[in-house]
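Hey, I was hoping to borrow your eyes for a little while. I've been puzzling over a protein and I'd love to understand its fold better. The fold is given in discrete form, as structure tokens running alongside the sequence. I'd be grateful if you could look everything over and explain what you see. No rush at all, and the record is pasted right below.
>
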Amino acid sequence: MTKTAPAARQPGKTPALKVRDDESPWSAAELKGVRAELDGDIARLRAELHGFEDDIAGLIKDSGDGAGDDQADAGAKTFEREHEYSLAQNSRDLLEQSVHALQRIDDGTYGVCESCGNAIGKLRLQAFPRATMCMDCKQRQERR
């Protein structure tokens, strides 16, 4: 399996991105829309993550004492803290994927499946801009 090398980036110019044979090339307006969505996601996720981290810090501080808590109270606090950890990790993962998608746009590899090297498809990317695999490879991955 050979992967496509990233296109050489010229300052101020977006490299031509790979599309399926039945699709038109990415227009500047389409890419601008994808970038705007990803930038918005990044800002939202950073704010969410900051809020989760504050919540977790508060939960840790509150659970430090624990005096007078019965088992149900301790269990509820532990559950709430673990839930906040899970939400924070999900936000971190989505943030990382969004940043990675912007990097792929910049280096010309956006739209190329990271598994097989084929085009992911514009419609898929417009619906889910963080996609890194074509539908076939994603379905194979999920069956494993």
About this structure: The two ends are 20 Å apart (CA to CA). DSSP finds four helices and no strands in the chain. The CA atoms of residues 44 and 97 lie 14 Å apart. The first helix runs from residue 28 to 65.
